[in-house]
# Entry
Amino acid sequence: MTAAPQTRAALGPELLRLLAALGWVVTATAVTLAGLGALPGWIAGEPHGVRTVATVEEAERLLGAGLALPSYLPAHLGWPPRRIRVAGGRGGAVELTFQDPAQGPGDRLQLLQATTPGAPLPPEFDALGSELTSSPATVASRPARLSRRTIAGEAWQQLSWERDGFRMVLRTRGDLEELFRMARSAHRRGSP
Amino acid sequence: MAPIVPTADLLAQGLFHSLVASLFIEALARSWAVQDPAQQIALRLVALAYPLLVFPALLLLFPHRGDEAFRDAALLSGRRWSDVAFLGLDLHRLFVSSLAALGVLLLAIDLVALARTLLRGRPVPAEPAPAQAAALAAALAPLLGPDPAPPVVYLDRPLPGLFCAGVRRPALHVTRGALELLDPGELRAALAHELAHLRRRDPARSWVMLGLRCLMCLNPTFQVLARALARDAERLADERGVALGADRVALASALLKLHRAAGGLDERRTLIFGGALNGTLRRASSLDLERRVRALLAPAPRPLALPWLRLGLAATSMSGLLYFVT
# Structure
């Protein structure tokens, strides 16, 4: 590049103009990129850091961990899950949502689990609504907590416990006995 | 929604990075009001080098950019667009396939035109009439100074043409039509322009660029940038021609005459459905010429101060931003 001959005094304002224009272009580009990055989340109605994936295998790949899934699933709930959402990437958490085709489009069961021992479930997976009652329970001789909640005007049963240090939550709008049976049957994929 | 294979993911990232790099450089060139064609070329080369050098370096030196945690914290993660569907196709995949198709199309348009030129065969040199040889020599002499005269190939064709060709031994090619069309001042200006191409070895550069374009055949931004660089090379040859002794107005007049003489002579379509593109390409070509003529009628552009600092800042800030785009 050939430069225009400039006096030393004229270089100061020129340098300022150069840096101001660069700052403006960098800022505008960064803001545009950030906007484009946030757009899919806005369109899908998902907070930043949460991704919807197609399969349990893809969720496991993103999380870098095998998921604990119930080996017992009531026949009326369709497999695969209707929706699979992953939060936090590697070592994060997953939410599997099931529907009952016979009951219409509403969600019937949710399984949430963290894939880092001792880590809480992310706030993005917190169900809004109010807790009505809460009582201690056990899942395969491990301490658990059973609560009744209303979420979007519907009554849900929620069972929370830890399996090998991993936080697990099962929520259902169905039968309580089925809920415990599913919780007891949960095991990591690939393990007996 | 099918999972995206890593190759498609990398391709999408490369295409998007190229697009952002090129828009960033264009915005910077406009904000800095770069007028000098040499500086314009240097800046555009930064954008052109991005997919060839910087993007592979980013992948090799910073493999953690592929981690999900990094993607979640990135300014933009293209894979997030696979969550959004349009007409049953995820937008990520739609983006990759449409851009790749556009890249191939842009390259194909130029390759077909080049193939047609090559199929016509090498131009057959002829001996100019004494009066025409004298006119050529008279127009060239003041441009050369102490330098030896370049090889000049005379072509006995009625179509006005004046160009520089040849990789190992570039030569000026002048047709009978050009010598009949241009007055002495215009001929000298047009020869000065071609002499500038010859001294920059532009024919060899254009073949190198074509090779790179084939390598980046799926990247439409690269194709567009390469075309923009070819236009910049023309503007640079205009300015260097003026520096060699061409009159600005005479060069503008010669360009207009040659363009008008060439227009409408070649109506053949280069592609299937090329008819739809024909008018658009012709208008684009006329617009390029109009810009060059306007630039020639204005005073010579002043190069900006601190050119190397500008290049360095442009390259580092562009790469820094794109580091956070996965």
Summary: The two ends of chain B are 20 Å apart (CA to CA). The first helix of chain B runs from residue 6 to 31. Chain B touches chain A at residues 1-3, 20, 23-24, 27-28, 31-32, 36, 38-39, 42, 67-69, 71-72, 74-77, 79-81, 83-84, 91, 302-311, 313-314, 317, 321, 324-325 (CB under 8 Å).
